[in-house]
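Input record, target 12 of the design panel.
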């Protein structure tokens, strides 16, 4: 019987390596952090880099820096002169993040902001070609409505964890499970939003790619 783990292992053997810096970050996260599974990881990291290669965004917004693994992956794929603004609510992550950002050859493409994205975003004075959402699942709908006016026509929004370990398929969700409810509400919001095109990819925990069409 072919297992999902075997398929993923095969995939990882046949894509680009994550590199020494990201591998070290990954190992460090598993030793020092309580929820290392939250980082993007090798496969998704290479996909995020590839999206940046394809889209060639000049300005990227990331909501939820966590370990900065995804941040560093996206920075690898950005063209010269491009910039990522990444926003993290938990400033206790700073001692973990800073050494890895300092070692990256792409560090000049990254700006880290600490605080609530609702407070940070209006201060940036930017429009974004790409937004990556990977933060509090209960607030996904709020993030979406907040950032939508800041997304350039022809821009993309990527939302992580939209399958949420398959819990989104259950008809009855425990009332206390607000994270699952948040993702389910977000998925329905995107499904019914006629302003955008969207596709959900069953990669790891689900990745939804949303396109905001250019004004004709």
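The sequence produced for target 12 reads:
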């Amino acid at each position: 019987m072919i297992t999902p783990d075997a398929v993923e292992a095969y995939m990882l053997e046949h894509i680009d390596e994550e590199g020494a810096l990201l591998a070290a970050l990954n190992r460090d996260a598993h030793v020092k952090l309580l929820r290392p599974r939250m980082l993007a990881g090798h496969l998704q990291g290479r996909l995020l880099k590839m999206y940046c290669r394809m889209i060639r965004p000049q300005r990227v917004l990331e909501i939820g820096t966590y370990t900065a693994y995804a941040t560093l992956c996206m920075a690898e794929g950005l063209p010269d002169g491009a910039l990522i603004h990444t926003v993290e609510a938990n400033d206790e992550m700073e001692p973990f993040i800073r050494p890895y950002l300092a070692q990256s050859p792409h560090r000049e493409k990254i700006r880290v902001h600490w605080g609530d994205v609702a407070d940070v975003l209006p201060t940036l004075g930017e429009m974004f070609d790409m937004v990556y959402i990977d933060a509090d699942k209960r607030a996904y709908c709020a993030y979406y409505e907040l950032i939508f006016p800041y997304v350039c026509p022809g821009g993309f929004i990527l939302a992580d964890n939209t399958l949420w370990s398959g819990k989104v398929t259950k008809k009855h969700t425990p009332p206390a499970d607000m994270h699952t409810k948040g993702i389910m509400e977000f998925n329905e919001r995107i499904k019914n939003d006629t302003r955008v095109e969207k596709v959900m990819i069953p990669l790891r925990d689900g990745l939804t790619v949303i396109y905001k069409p250019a004004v004709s």
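The beta strands are 59-63, 83-88, 110-114, 128-133, 151-160, 197-201, 207-211.
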